Amino acid sequence: MVNIDITAYDPEQVRLMEEMCILVNKNDQRIGADTKKNCHLMENINKGLLHRAFSVFLFDSENKLLLQQRSDDKITFPSQWTNTCCSHPLNTPLELEETNQIGVRRAAQRKLQHELGIKQEQLPLEDFVFLTKIHYLAPSDGIWGEHEIDFILIIRADVNFEANKNEVKAVEYISKEDLQKKFQNPGDWKFTPWFKLICENFLFDWWEKLDNLEESKDIHKIHRL
């Protein structure tokens, strides 16, 4: 058993580690719940603990993608650049509902407001386009990591936002071409592993089809990356 002094981390981030994530099997069937802390310990991940997550890609009317740099206070993957919002539906009645991914959509609304201050009325649930799921495992620092079935959501909207500094260090809208350049020449930008996986496998193709995402949907498949 790894002995972790979690009190050494930011108090608000420690509090959020007590949220209850949804445990799933490799086919995304619910099998229970556990704390965010337990779900993100590599000791448990290495034993197969798997939870449900989502990743939102928010594009504006110029087809630029809103990126965020995770806060230095984050316990996992601090200071790294990633897609607009990445988090977890919680083990609550509203976010457990699976019809039309409604629970995941509600979680996305909730976290976009929490992290970026985007009002929920600017992001109607029906405007989130669910494309597919990915299953991946990524260590953070040897102690913490991710092992998720990740629902991929795209939404197009011009929004007002005010970043929660405990969650988000910086934000930037970026074009497809500029993001591709960043991957080739990252400089001091470090990207989260799930964002890199999604970009390398899917995102740049989806970006070309934002006006018609129907042909990009693969809603019954879980991609093992």
From TrEMBL:
Keywords of the record: Isomerase, Isoprene biosynthesis, Lipid biosynthesis, Lipid metabolism, Magnesium, Metal-binding, Steroid biosynthesis
Single GO MF descriptor: metal ion binding
Swiss-Prot/TrEMBL cofactor(s): Mg(2+)
Catalysis performed (reactions): isopentenyl diphosphate = dimethylallyl diphosphate
Pfam families for the chain: NUDIX (PF00293)
GO cellular component assignments: cytoplasm
EC number: 5.3.3.2
Example of a GO biological process term: steroid biosynthetic process
UniProt-listed SUPFAM superfamilies: Nudix (SSF55811)
Record-linked CDD domains: NUDIX_IPP_Isomerase
Pathway of action: Isoprenoid biosynthesis; dimethylallyl diphosphate biosynthesis; dimethylallyl diphosphate from isopentenyl diphosphate: step 1/1
Chain ranges of the Nudix hydrolase domain: 49-197
Broad EC category: isomerase
Family to which this protein belongs: Belongs to the IPP isomerase type 1 family.
PANTHER family for the chain: ISOPENTENYL-DIPHOSPHATE DELTA-ISOMERASE (PTHR10885:SF0)
Protein name: isopentenyl-diphosphate Delta-isomerase
Lineage summary: Eukaryota, Fungi, Fungi incertae sedis, Mucoromycota, Glomeromycotina
